[in-house]
Specification:
Elements lengths: L2 H13 L6 H17 L1 H12 L3 H27 L2 E3 L9 E8 L2 E5 L7 H13 L2 E5 L5 H14 L5 E3 L4 H8 L5 E5 L2 H13 L4 E4 L5 E4 L5 H13 L11 E5 L3 H15 L14 H8 L7 E3 L3 E2 L4 E2 L2 E3 L17 E7 L2 H10 L5 E5 L3 H10 L4 E4 L20 E2 L4 H7 L1 E8 L15 H11 L1
Parallel strand pairs: 3-4, 3-6, 4-5, 6-7, 8-9, 8-15, 9-14, 13-14, 15-16
Antiparallel strand pairs: 1-2, 2-18, 7-17, 10-13, 11-12
Helix pairs in contact: 2-4, 2-5, 3-6, 4-5, 4-14, 5-14, 9-10
The chain binds nicotinamide-adenine-dinucleotide.
The site of nicotinamide-adenine-dinucleotide (NAD) has 27 residues, from helix 7 and helix 8.
Amino acid sequence: MNYEKIIGQQHQFFNTNATRDISFRKKELKRLKSILQQNEALLYSSIYKDFKKSEFETYITELSIIYHEIDLALAKIKKWSGKKRASISLTNLPGKSYIIPEPYGTVLVIGAWNYPYQLSICPAIAAIAAGCTVILKPSEIPSHTSEIMAKLINENFDPGFFRVIEGGVKETTALLAVKFDKIFFTGSVPVGKIIYQAAAKHLTPVTLELGGKSPAIITKDVNINLTAKRLVWAKFLNAGQTCIAPDYVLVESSIKDQLLSSIKHHIDKADYAVENQNYPQIINEQNYDRLTNFIEADKVYLGGTGNKDERIIAPTVLKDIELSDKVMQDEIFGPILPVLSFETIEEAIEKVKTLSKPLSCYIFTRSKSLKNKMLKEISFGGGAVNDAVMHFTEQTLPFGGVGDSGIGNYHGKYGFETFSHYKSVLQKPFWIEPNLKYSPYSATKLKWLKRIIG
Ligand code: NAD
């Protein structure tokens, strides 16, 4: 495929100024929603073929999020894209200042496999809302979802405006050789670094939505039953293949046993049986092997079993885990929950800080002072107090990482901003021009300038 030509076509389309028109953006977003709605059955069957993800989970974790993003953008594009007045200093009176959001241009969105629809389509929605043209490269690993997105989008949109290019490393590498106006990447830290380097060659701005080890810190005063219930749901959703899943638990040692037994109770109740189609498969054999390698028999509190043919790993809880254990050396990204304990909150914070800054952090406590201490001292992308994962659903919260877990953010208005340049303008009238800044300079002029500028 001639990527130079395809991207050139998109630059040309962008330069027609069609996407600057708000009604055009709205029309295309409505088209996208209606195509997805009309083809929901295909979207469900494709993702089921890839990793047996159920209709229920696909709707709540993929399609509903996409629809909400479109609806919000449709309601707010006009406001978000409007010119914003800024205050003006004495120096430039009687002028005025304002900021005009403008679309970056032609953007590349690279998706990850674990939520293949929303991680690809939500950034594209934000880019369209901002007035960009979009090349979308979904993850090749869930091949059926990649194929259906390519079919639905490429058959229904002008390729100069919105186009899906399927492929893996080879195709992405070739795409990255061409200059884009913005790159939005979701994926792993090592590949994030490759994307950043490729973008640097063209001075292309990037947003990197990466991963990491997100902790759940639990103090002894919590409602143990509800804490365990929320944790179990968040961890085993999508069989743990969620970038913001609680990667590990840090629990105050005096309630460790009670918490473990409550986690067991909720796992049993959720009925994540091997045959249960509501518990998705591990995406591929490579990940299955990577995950089972984390399970050390003497540390298994619950689960630890798997079925390689079906690519299912039973919800697994590991106890008495230390930072030096194998499972703590890398992001887990699967249905394995290591439990570590602590005596003091300082010790818990210290342990979290030993690792890279996480994408998410979950703080379970009734204590206001402990909550405030953790919120103040731990750096993380985003998170929740007394819950896990659900912050992702709040469109008013920017979603993204910090440090090794990412650069930039999106969702709602923040997605619009991610694909916009904020052009700042000072406007002056002709009817007056103070002479102070012009040469010949003099002591009197300087004296007055010091008074005005400060
Ligand atoms: P990945 O980095 O392997 O792949 C992501 C994308 O990059 C895919 O489209 C893939 O085709 C492409 N890619 C892979 N290798 C490449 C290379 N050498 N050069 C160019 N492109 C390449 O990640 P993944 O396995 O799809 O996803 C898992 C990771 O993504 C986890 O670390 C997870 O935490 C993270 N993640 C983050 C978020 C977030 O929103 N922050 C969401 C989901 C997943």
